[in-house]
Amino acid sequence: MPRPPAAAAYRGTRFHQWVEARFGQVPLIDADGLVPEGEAENEDDLVTLQQAFLAGPYADRQPAAVEAPFHLVLGEQILVGRIDAVYAVEPASSTLPADARYEVVDWKTGHHPADPLQLALYRLAWAELHQIPIEQVVATFYYVATGRIERPDDLPDRAALTQWWSGSRSQMIERGTTPF
Description:
Elements: H1 7-22, H2 44-54, E1 65-74, E2 77-88, E3 102-108, H3 116-129, E4 137-143, E5 148-150, H4 158-175
Parallel strand pairs: 3-4
Antiparallel strand pairs: 1-2, 2-3, 4-5
């Protein structure tokens, strides 16, 4: 049965809409129609996230892409998604690896640890979409509320992701569940 959206998901969606609008893109989803009960009156969390973002390292950087769509084939499956933001890396002013050309960023509006496999998929998708070596794409989780930046340096490549996806999918089928 469908469930009403959780307050945290609503705040995250509203934050993503705000970032999209900030960088001149029309939001993909109108979250106003998804307002959980009692949440419309309480925008304090959203304002706090916006202020934290504006004080953070991505506020004044112009992204190369926002909500960048991708299709990625792993094994026999097609994964469809969107990358929150992608930034071109300026080597002279960067603390990122010298060969990095792009940084894919996933905004995290909650406090729970995120799964690095998400970044690995985004990284691979961007590299293949632009036909560049995967090593030239850095992947980042940015926990907006705290300003914490997480850049796993051991993300799997295409072969490892394909193997993981095939194994994960097989296990889910055996249990009667589906991925995502």
